Amino acid sequence: MGAVSRAGPARVELGRAGEKAAADLLRRRGYEVVGAGFTARRGELDLVCRRGRELVVVEVKTRTDGAFGAPMEAVGARKRRALMAAAAEYRALADWRGPIRYAVVGLTVKPGPGAGRASPTGVPANRVKGALEFEAELIEDPFS
User: Fold this and answer.
1) Which residue range forms the structural domain that includes residue 38?
2) Which of 27, 86, 88, 124 could form a disulfide with 40 if both were Cys (CB 3.0 to 4.6 A apart)?
3) C-alpha 30: how far from chain center
4) Within a domain: residue 125?
5) What is the pLDDT of residues 83-115, one digit of tens each?
6) pLDDT of 25-75, one tens digit each?
7) What 8-state DSSP symbol labels residue 124?
């Protein structure tokens, strides 16, 4: 059984929007997205991609602002171990024999008009599902 999310509905929606934006970014950069939301015993793989002969496991971190630090700062040693364990499980299930590498996509919501106003859920009041714009950073091989 996979990890249980403790995020509220607004955070889950923000995370999904971020994962979609990350997948779009990766496709534009030549990656083929082959899986999303793979749940393993020790965690979840946000995106699984192929690029050339490599399988690329992608962690997506989405933030509404910099209050909790840069998205990459949220990928500590525990998260790295969980990603590697989940990737090993994916490798076995997919019978993947090629190389695996890792990437992190950090996304921060671009502020827009009225960005200072927040709804009770903490998501800016002027944001509409599917209408978020992000500042994105792709960090390839962040653990090497």
Assistant:
1) 9-140
2) 86
3) 17
4) yes
5) 999 999 999 999 999 999 999 999 888 776 544
6) 999 999 999 999 999 998 899 999 999 999 999 999 988 876 667 767 778
7) B
Cα–Cα distance between 5 and 90 in angstroms, integer?
Answer: 20
**Domain annotation covers residue 33:** yes
The pLDDT of residue 118 is 40
Number of folded domains that form the chain: 1
Beta bridge partners of 32: 50
Sign (positive or negative) of CA dihedral 95, 61, 43, 83? positive
In this prediction, residue 134 carries a pLDDT of 84
- Whether 44 is in a domain gets the answer yes
Global confidence as pTM:
0.78
Residue 106, domain CATH: 3.40.1350.10
Instruction: For residue 113, give the amino acid letter.
Output: P
What one-letter code names the amino acid at 26?
L
- Quick one: tokens of 121? 């859920």
**62 located within any domain:** yes
